[in-house]
Design a protein that fits this description.
The complex is a heterodimer. Chain A is about 0% helix and about 35% strand. Chain A starts with a strand and ends in a 14-residue tail after the last strand. Chain B is mostly beta strands. Chain B has one domain: EutN/Ccml (OB fold (Dihydrolipoamide Acetyltransferase, E2P), Beta Barrel). Classes of the chains: A mainly beta, B mainly beta. At the A-B interface, strand 4, strand 5 and strand 6 of A face strand 1, strand 2, strand 3 and strand 4 of B. Strand 6 of chain A pairs antiparallel with strand 1 of chain B.
């Protein structure tokens, strides 16, 4: 899964029958610092997300699982709305040495 | 599978019901030399990993669902191990 911001939605009247009633949202994936990372994509929405919200989404056929038994033809799906996330900024480079005064 | 470094935790109240009780961690995939590799990901944790730890992750839906122990969960990444050591013979 990845964090993303919902930046819009897509309306398509003529579409696969299995997509009827399914919301299509435009996502901008973000990194742990909240900055955009990578390309925008369109995802089906399984949790009622709105524009401007931070969400997490799943890639692959698992995106259709929330709509079971309907087999939604989707390769990305929003599966959670993020309240907050906590990151230790030095986690990648290893613990910083304590500063000596 | 990939190596990754645990960056932090994610809190999401409103999520698909299959995620209830699952621990979500933000992880940064890394190369064997510990340099970042690609985008930061969210993975479900079934082994009790903590921030700063180096872990083994699977990036595939079926494997991640099995790691979580719940069929039909819309998940594509899971932490399946905490790495003690990596030995690389060049």
């Amino acid at each position: 899964m990845q964090l993303a911001i919902v930046i819009g939605d897509v309306v398509a009247t003529r579409k696969d029958e299995q997509l009827f009633g399914v919301k299509l949202m435009i996502l901008q994936p973000i990194g742990a610092d909240g900055a955009p990372f990578g390309k925008t994509l369109i995802a089906v929405d399984a949790v009622g997300a709105g524009v401007g919200e931070t969400v997490f989404f799943v890639r692959g056929k698992e995106a259709s699982f929330p709509f079971h038994p309907v087999e939604v033809p989707a390769d990305a799906g929003i599966v959670g709305i993020v309240d907050r996330w906590d990151v230790e900024e030095d986690a990648v480079s290893g613990p910083r040495q304590a500063e000596r005064r | 599978m990939l190596l990754a470094r645990v960056l932090g935790t994610v809190v999401a109240t409103q999520k698909h019901r299959k995620f209830d009780g699952a621990k979500l961690l933000l992880v940064q995939p890394v190369n064997v030399d510990d340099t970042p590799r690609g985008a930061t990901l969210l993975a479900v944790d079934s082994v009790g990993a903590g921030v700063h730890e180096r872990v083994l992750i699977v990036l595939e839906g079926r494997a991640a669902g099995e790691a979580l122990g719940r069929k039909g969960t819309p998940v594509d990444a899971a932490i399946v191990g905490i790495v003690d050591t990596v030995d690389l013979h060049e």
